[in-house]
Design a protein that fits this description.
about 35% helix; D-Maltodextrin-Binding Protein, domain 2; Ca3427-like PBP 2 domain-containing protein; 10 strands; 2 domains; five-stranded mixed sheet; single chain; alpha/beta; Ca3427-like_PBP2; signal
Length: about 290
Amino acid sequence: MAGAPLRIGYVPEHFSTPIYFAQKHYGLDAVLTPFPSGTGAMITALRAKEIDIGIGLTEGWIAGLGKEDLPGDGGYRLVGTYVDTPLCWAISTGAQRPDITSVESLQGGKIGVSRIGSGSYVMGFVLADQRGWLAPGQPSPPFSDNVVLHTFAHLREAVNTGAADFFMWEHFTQKRYFDAGEIRRVGEIYTPWSSWKIVASTDLPTGDDRVQALFDKLDRGVAHFNDNQEEAVQYICTNLDYTEADAREWLKTVKFPTHTKGVKAETVESCVTILQKAGVLVPGKGMQPGAMVI
């Protein structure tokens, strides 16, 4: 409804710090709803008209719009860029899985994912493509099962019970669990694109002033984040599930854009190309890259 505060979905991880600063210091007028299970859950919420804006992973948003069985108009479009740097996904298994010695030993195993179509699901195909597991003559699909587990906590549990053999999640979110010996890191993979995008519901009016105000406030939140790294570290290690040392290490790896409004066409096209190669999207089917962005 025009004039009401925007309902914004986000992932309650360290990346959310500029959103918190935008609201705390610069008056971002929004109802912030955390989605700990990630981008796939936000896609569901956008299509159910439960949120107006989502801030999540590039590959999840694009996969959601590119599917050939896209419902209705898809429910959302890409409108902004939240993080410029790629995301490092750590590849993890259970602490007591001596049968899993390397990434190569994961071929044909059971991959744990938060949801079908989520970033953790999509990156399984990207991993398989990079490893040559999608090549002619290789078993298809590359994994014996996609085990849907919804949350990071359930993913960690599943690799220790054997319900799943491995999963992928952002490195720094996992690090304290590696350090504690709960799960074991067997490798890593980076997204071949900038990692986070902002999407808006197709129900929002074109040129909605609230969306422009959101970009303005986020830009100020990003600038505050860049200028107040100590405040960022204290917020992350006090309110989120990270140690101070990990928060400081993460700061060295991330870059937020100065201007969050807009999405580069080549980023979307590159992501679609790789998702098609990985078998997540089908060439000539579903929404084309140019139609995903407004």
